[in-house]
């Protein structure tokens, strides 16, 4: 599976340059307005040329973007790729016959070479007299030499590569609707792995040629569409019914099949996700809600997506987008389309089919979609990201386990040293809709459209050495705010601040690294001092100090060192449930003046020893415990 991890990195890098395309679409759309009739012809000219300029220099943008993405946002790699493209363009202009022009494929190749060279040689050292050419400067030197040789070589082989792309175009054309059907299915399958950008780059930016009135040769379904090619838009049109109607139909089915007590939150979350998908074409939040729990339904989704592509081809519909097949692109680019009005009735029919089919399947097969069981519902992250980022980092195995953190529109794309250290259950409770392990430590985590903000916060934590303490769950059960404990002393935080748990099993484990500093005679409560000087009190149940008779059995003693997840106390859960005031088990820090800030995971079900339920940042780095 390591090759999938490498493709993930390449797919992420290739996606980056496409983020400029919405600007091109908006500019071209503005330029198409009747400014001449309004007496403002200059606006039409500026907007049109600005939009066309982005497409004209798209190969250069791909070169820089791919290199920048593969080299972990390193500027020298992007500069090396750009210099390579300049060399390539000059050699072809003066030594070629004019039949070969820079393309996005060439830009991607230069981006890959520059990224690989930077990652391999950024720390290279030479003897002192030559060290000026060492480090990242060597990448620029090597890329210049490589580009000259590669460009000379391309003069000879480029016609054969172009012939291969032409043959692929002819093959797809001969396949007709069936070819579009296969493309639509493959696109949806690769979306699950985050690799659809690789497929799309071929069909959207490589296949087909169109010569503009001024003599420029445009390649790819997407650039040709915006250049005015009437035959373009076939590989994009069929996505509009799926993004604007079908997938939002799935969201409505999930809402209507949710439990009544969870329906308000599910409605808020998935109605928002449906609107995001309708307007922008970002669909993964909804798709990942059933991908893992009902993969057979995802395959139905795959087939229906392929059929949508076939239908739009058969009806002669041509429509395109700059970013994705949402309503915004549908309206912006409608003036360039052909028969695009038919996408609306097709989409409405698809929406009804998807809604009826998925609602029936969820009910018939008891599919545990969000709202039918406790778990992630893709929480509203706005405002909570800085506080929950430390918990996400801990769920990823800590910053020592992180090699690289990147993101795309809806998912984190992470490389870790050991993917077995990732706590998938914690990530789910923290808002993740899905986790995909691609091998070689490459992992994708779907967090929705806030993924980029999460990446920024996680990277900030990676770069700062904060004095913080991370807490695991001390028992299996449900976590609740300390204010909800049915005891005034704990609820008012007179003992300390923290959280509480309602146990479902009869074991209490250590939530932190530390030393046992106090074990009550009845063994219903225990105190731990962490190396950072925090004092943690764990109190099993409320008013349990009077329960005598061996209902609590400690397996540790004062002075013992403990680690997260280590068993501390076993207790008679059934007896305590019957005789105690409450099972609520507070986990509080009794010297909260040491704490600068607090972070809490969502108050939901947790597993024993589960990482990332609470995190605190300390005021200072003083170590050593305090006596209770």
UniProtKB/TrEMBL annotation:
GO BP term (any one): N-acetylglucosamine transport
Pfam name, any one: PTS_EIIA_1
A molecular-function term among this protein's GO annotations: protein-N(PI)-phosphohistidine-sugar phosphotransferase activity
Annotated compartments: Cell membrane
Catalytic machinery residues: 408 (phosphocysteine intermediate)
Keywords: Cell membrane, Kinase, Membrane, Phosphotransferase system, Sugar transport, Transferase, Transmembrane, Transmembrane helix, Transport
PROSITE patterns for the chain: PTS_EIIA_TYPE_1, PTS_EIIB_TYPE_1, PTS_EIIB_TYPE_1_CYS, PTS_EIIC_TYPE_1
InterPro entries given in the database record: Dup_hybrid_motif, Glu_permease_IIB, PTrfase_EIIB_Cys, PTS_EIIA_1_perm, PTS_EIIC, PTS_EIIC_1, PTS_Glucose_EIICBA, PTS_IIB_1
PTS EIIC type-1 domain boundaries: 1-374
Gene Ontology CC entries for this record: plasma membrane
Membrane spanning residue stretches: 12-35, 55-88, 100-118, 138-161, 168-190, 232-255, 288-313, 340-358
Residues covered by the PTS EIIB type-1 domain: 386-468
Membrane topology reported for the UniProt record: Multi-pass membrane protein
PTS EIIA type-1 domain span: 487-591
NCBIfam families assigned: EIIB_glc, PTBA
Protein name as catalogued: PTS glucose transporter subunit IIA
Naturally occurring in which organism (per UniProt): Paenibacillus crassostreae
């Amino acid at each position: 599976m390591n090759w999938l991890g490498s493709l993930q990195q390449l797919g992420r890098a290739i996606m980056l340059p496409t983020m400029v395309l919405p600007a091109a679409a908006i500019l071209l759309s503005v330029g198409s307005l009747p400014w001449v009739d309004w007496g403002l012809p200059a606006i039409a000219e500026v907007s049109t040329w600005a939009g066309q300029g982005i497409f004209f220099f798209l190969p250069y943008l791909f070169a820089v973007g791919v290199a920048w993405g593969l080299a972990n946002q390193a500027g020298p790699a992007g500069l090396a790729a750009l210099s390579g493209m300049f060399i390539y363009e000059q050699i072809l202009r003066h030594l070629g016959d004019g039949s070969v022009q820079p393309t996005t494929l060439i830009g991607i190749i230069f981006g890959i070479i520059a990224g690989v060279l930077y990652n391999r040689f950024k720390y290279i050292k030479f003897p002192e007299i030559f060290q000026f050419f060492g480090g990242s400067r060597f990448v620029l030197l090597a890329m210049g030499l490589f580009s000259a040789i590669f460009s000379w070589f391309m003069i000879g082989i480029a016609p054969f590569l172009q012939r291969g792309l032409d043959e692929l175009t002819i093959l797809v054309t001969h396949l007709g609707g069936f070819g579009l059907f296969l493309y639509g299915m493959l696109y949806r399958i690769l979306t699950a792995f985050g690799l659809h950008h690789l497929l799309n780059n071929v069909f959207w930016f490589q296949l087909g040629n169109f010569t503009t009135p001024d003599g420029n040769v445009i390649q790819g379904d997407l650039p040709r569409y915006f250049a005015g090619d009437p035959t373009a838009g076939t590989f994009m049109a069929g996505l509009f019914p799926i993004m604007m109607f079908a997938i939002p139909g799935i969201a409505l089915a999930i809402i209507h099949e949710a439990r009544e007590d969870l329906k308000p939150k599910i409605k808020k979350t998935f109605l928002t996700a449906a609107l995001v998908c309708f307007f922008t074409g970002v669909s993964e939040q909804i798709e990942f809600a059933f991908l893992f729990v009902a993969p057979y339904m995802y395959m139905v989704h795959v087939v229906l997506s392929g059929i949508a592509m076939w239908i739009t081809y058969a009806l002669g519909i041509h429509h395109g987008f700059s970013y994705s097949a949402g309503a915004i692109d549908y309206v912006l680019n409608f003036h360039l389309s052909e028969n695009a009005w038919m996408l609306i009735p097709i989409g409405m029919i698809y929406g009804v089919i998807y809604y009826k089919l998925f609602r029936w399947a969820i009910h018939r097969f008891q599919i545990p979609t969000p709202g039918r069981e406790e778990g992630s519902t893709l929480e509203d992250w706005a405002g909570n990201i800085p506080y929950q980022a430390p918990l996400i980092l801990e769920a990823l195995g800590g910053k020592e386990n992180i090699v690289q953190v990147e993101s795309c529109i809806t998912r984190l794309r992470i490389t870790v040293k050991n993917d077995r250290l990732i706590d998938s259950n914690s990530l789910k409770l923290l808002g993740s809709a899905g986790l995909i392990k691609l091998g070689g430590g490459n992992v994708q985590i779907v967090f929705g459209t806030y993924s980029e903000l999460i990446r920024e916060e996680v990277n900030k934590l990676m770069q700062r050495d904060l004095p913080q303490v991370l807490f695991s769950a001390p028992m299996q059960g449900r976590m609740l705010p300390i204010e909800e404990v049915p005891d005034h002393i704990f609820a008012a935080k007179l003992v300390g601040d923290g959280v509480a748990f309602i146990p479902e099993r009869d074991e209490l484990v250590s939530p932190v690294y530390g030393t046992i500093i106090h074990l009550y005679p009845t063994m219903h409560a225990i105190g731990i001092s962490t190396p950072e000087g925090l004092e943690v009190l764990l109190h099993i149940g409320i008013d349990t100090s009077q329960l005598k008779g061996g209902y609590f059995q400690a397996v540790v003693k004062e002075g013992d060192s403990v680690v997260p997840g280590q068993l501390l106390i076993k207790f008679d859960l059934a007896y305590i449930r019957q005789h105690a005031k409450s099972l609520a088990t507070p986990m509080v820090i009794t010297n909260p003046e040491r704490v600068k800030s607090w972070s809490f995971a969502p108050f939901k079900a947790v597993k024993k020893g589960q990482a990332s339920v609470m995190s605190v940042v300390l005021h200072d780095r003083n170590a050593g415990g305090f006596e209770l």
